[in-house]
Amino acid sequence: MAVIFLSFVLIFGILTVLGRRIGATLFPAETRGIATAIGALLATACFSIGGTVVFYLTSVHVLTLSIAAAVMIGGIVFATRGWRSRTEPSLPQTIFGANRGQTVALLLIAIVSIVAWWQAILSTPITDAVRSPWLVLSPISIIAPAIALVASLVLLHRGSKLLGSLALFATLFSIFASATVLFPLGYGFDPFLHRATIAHIAEHGTIAPKPLYYIGEYAIELFGNILGGIPIAVIDAFLVPLIAAITLTIAARRLPTGIAILLIALSNFVTTTPQSLAYVFTILTIVTIPKSIQRYRDLIAPSIFAIAALITHPIAGVPACFFVAFCATRVWDQSPMKTIARSLLAVGGAVALPLMFAAQAMIRKAPMSFSFDHLWKLNELPLTGFFFSQGNTWLDALYLIIGNISSIILILAVVGIVLRYRSRIASANDAGIMTLALFISFAIVSLGIDFSYLIDYERQDFALRLLLIATLFALPIADEALRTIADRVARSSQSHSAAAFVVLFIVSSAAVYGLYPRHDGYVRSAAFNVSQADFDTVYAIHQREAEHADYIVLSNQATAAAALQEFGFRKYYHTDIFYYPIPTGGALYQSYLSMVDTAPTKETALTAMNLAGVSKAYFVVSDYWWKSNAIIENAKQQTDNWFAVDGGETTIFIFRSEASAQ
What we know:
4-stranded mixed sheet
């Protein structure tokens, strides 16, 4: 533990020094703290890019990463020579702002609320399978972080910017890091898969086949693990929660009000995945674009963040790169060539991702078709919405925000464009065009492309990611609209101001309640977390088999996640069939769904065994699965043998081919 702590201190020190130099060089008009924070994140993005180069060019180990780190640190130091005294100092006498009493009161409210939140989640670790943490952790507990968010934002804009920034960062980090505390065994499925991949690269120096993306995240974690000696599980648990908390605090400082950050789906930042990290890099690309671009040098920071987003996950990185290129045309003199270039970039931003999906399907030789028939039927877009009361005033208010969050921020963006049209702020216009381009991409993917090779919920997920990214680019314009509204409210009566605080509290509460899956009278969650029973199940199966025995396991994704964490990529068949089903449209997972959604039969199990070329299969049924009792009884009539784990929380059936049975 002491070694890990010292490693954290060393890494923090290096990033702070580099961040100070970068921030003072590229953001001389910013305060020292914010400039240093942006610089530290920029240094992190550089390490992401450098580690990616190492991964693709050679093997990843201590020597290659050490050389890459030395080159990047040396390069940053050389590029930032003469950096001193370029940022505004954070003067101690301004720490409490003009109203010391109000500042202290708001700070105390934020601190007490954060402590109350941590007390609630520390006392409620979840190791059983549950549909929603709000069934274990009282939903009333969201009041504490919601109050902290309100107090922090008010403190930031009406009190002390320094203390407000610190309070907002502490609040956001407490919210994002809650998953690590609430779910000590792990949360979600994707983080388990990515951690297993990073561990494999750390052990073997590479992984085959080399993925075309994700490496941006892996590189950062490999630097911390191989050079810093920090366990991958520790880095992975806190990487995105920490960087996202810093990023959104910076966004709140650089946006007019910062309130718009609450309208992003904050659930994307509670776990570390390439997609979530790419979202963070994309937000940094957006908020570091200057309002006035005089030279290409002004785009150094957003360009690096956009490249980091691209190598981390192209669904976010491609729009970020188009956005930077679009903004770069502002340097050009007004000419027909500039108009043509901007038009081509706008069209490219709209069609790039649909074309990328089509290319990926062709590479995988997966069936995919495109049709114009539904392309103009915008009423068929998979937009969520909540407009009708369910009889609970509090939940009605929360779901009015949660259920319409994308629509709200896009509507605010339209309002912002209308209200600020005369000012012709170039950065806002560029963000608006990129938002429109991504909405067109969302419509094309939703209505024009048929991803028949994907599971139903994954088809919709592709499109909704584009909608989310569109809301990220809408942030600056939406926040402009909120500033105009806030200014008008501030000039009106006290009752209007009080109503505005109530609305801000509801929005904050909705942001926290929307962090996790919900199972209430409004939404019925179908997801379950990885439980202790899942770990006990994979060990029970593993102990029954020899080390190199060949078999497959038909299970849900929670059990597969436990196997990934404990045994890594132990066994693949025909190079692409993992011995546990990974729910990405694979045939093995389809076999599992056939067993649980229709009826478990030996023929289905034999088909799955033939796919992998093995003679033995385990079929796992969790007691929370829909109609699990009927599935278990039917499976008992088909199986060769069965046993239960943890008092029946999971039941495991064993199927053998006829040849092995003889």
